Amino acid sequence: MKATGKPAQVHFAYQQIADEIEAQILRGDLNPGDQLPGEAELAGQFGVTRSTLREGLRQLESDGLVHRPSPRRLEVAVPQADQLTTRSGRAMALMKVTFRELWQVTMMTEPLAARLAAEHGTEDEINGLQSLHAETVAAEGMMKRTISLDEDFHTRLADMGRNRVLGLAREPIALLLFRGFEQIAPFAPKFYKRQIEAHSNIIAALRDRDADRAEKWARMHIEDFWRGAQIAGLEDEIALNPRALS
Amino acid sequence: MKATGKPAQVHFAYQQIADEIEAQILRGDLNPGDQLPGEAELAGQFGVTRSTLREGLRQLESDGLVHRPSPRRLEVAVPQADQLTTRSGRAMALMKVTFRELWQVTMMTEPLAARLAAEHGTEDEINGLQSLHAETVAAEGMMKRTISLDEDFHTRLADMGRNRVLGLAREPIALLLFRGFEQIAPFAPKFYKRQIEAHSNIIAALRDRDADRAEKWARMHIEDFWRGAQIAGLEDEIALNPRALS
DNA sequence: CTTGCATTTAGTGTCGGACACAAAGCCCGT
DNA sequence: ACGGGCTTTGTGTCCGACACTAAATGCAAG
């Protein structure tokens, strides 16, 4: 039976500072884009030295709650996905998650992304996807380029669904999984073609606003990927490549 | 076209320190549990002052890569979920995501969690879930307690599936969504009973190792939740309560 | 020789002051 | 009015210092 909020250990000054500013941001007293006073002034406000205050700021900065557009300006940051993506990616890397775990989840996220994209994607976005797909076709056989384009394709597809929660959740997972293509491509060269087929079918389904078909093809696409992983014997291999993050 | 790794801006000493130690951890030169030297020694190693080094440490600490079990001991941390959960939760809060977005994703994660739990959960875990469920039944009508127990139920269910990726991805989302029960309960008192029914059916399915049935009941459970949200008119409301995080 | 307590010691958290360097603002001569 | 040089302001880094506490050590009693 734990209470709602737990202030817990707050002896340390730098921690209190970070917590206080964080609270102000969450509470809405400070809004993304707002500029904060200089370090000297802030330090004065909180009654600590600059050194101490700076430690608190570092923490907020690395939490992505504030950032410095120029060294001169310290402002409240708008949370950005890639920030979280690296964090989760690192965590999963350290946890040594397997391809199986990544795949099980991706089997849900990508079909959902495709479905939502079919429902909400605009004409322009579909056209953008189409031209991206053209690049992919042209890059057949070029592994690294294909991976990069594939990541891009799926990320854009997810963005089209107008669901930021899905975008946030799937990005780090999909990234890690798709990167595994590097290890399966040598075993299954024909997967280039199957990927191209799947992508173009997804695009066609989007054009028809056929959510079911989009979802189905996305599912088949990811299933295909799994077959490749099986051929390469990766099912329970650890999915990284720590230096892939850096 | 972006290259793979981008070291980018690294003029700042504290940043370089954080990056270097992070790299050592990711690379495996430092493993979770390893103790690091004292600040003075580290500062000497990197050729900076303690103040500067400390700023780097703060950053690593807030990244969850190192932590202090006692103020005296600084060691490489094992990445823990709740760390990421607060981060993502905060991000979604600031993004002002809607219940709809949360629900759409949860409609995928919880059924998958139930399915995997049916496949991999141990007898002990199922019993644990059962007694948790008993508490929930006893708490019928007590909103806050019910919410807390519900969160716990679903988290445990997810843990049973032996998929850490799913656990990581769903936790912050489910937390935010379920907390919305606080706003729907007043409108739909009968949902206490429906929740109890769903949970006990899920448990029964787990006992029978019936993945399909477990998945189905989980889906119905979340659908029910959505109906409640509709009754309360929350569909496109912002899902928080910033102080729910604290 | 082991155990319990007091003491030393090492290390963290915080302070205050200081300086170089860069950007933002200001001033002035043409 | 305008551009270039000067001043101001603020960050990044350094240095030295001190209180407080937890770990290590030494000492005394069993």
From TrEMBL, chains A, B:
InterPro entries named among the record's database cross-references: GntR_C (IPR011711), TF_FadR/GntR_C (IPR008920), Tscrpt_reg_HTH_GntR (IPR000524), WH-like_DNA-bd_sf (IPR036388), WH_DNA-bd_sf (IPR036390)
Output the PROSITE patterns linked to this UniProt entry.
HTH_GNTR (PS50949)
Q: Which domain of life is it from?
A: Bacteria
Q: Which PANTHER family match?
A: TRANSCRIPTIONAL REGULATOR, GNTR FAMILY, UXU OPERON TRANSCRIPTIONAL REGULATOR
Could you tell me one molecular function GO term of this UniProt entry?
A: DNA-binding transcription factor activity
Give every HTH gntR-type domain span: 11-79
Q: Which SUPFAM superfamilies match?
A: GntR ligand-binding domain-like, Winged helix' DNA-binding domain
Protein name as it appears in the record:
FadR family transcriptional regulator
Quick check: keyword Transcription in the entry?
yes
Q: What Gene3D superfamilies does the annotation carry?
A: GntR ligand-binding domain-like (1.20.120.530), Winged helix-like DNA-binding domain superfamily/Winged helix DNA-binding domain (1.10.10.10)
Key word Hydrolase present: no
Looking up CDD domains in the UniProt record yields: WHTH_GntR
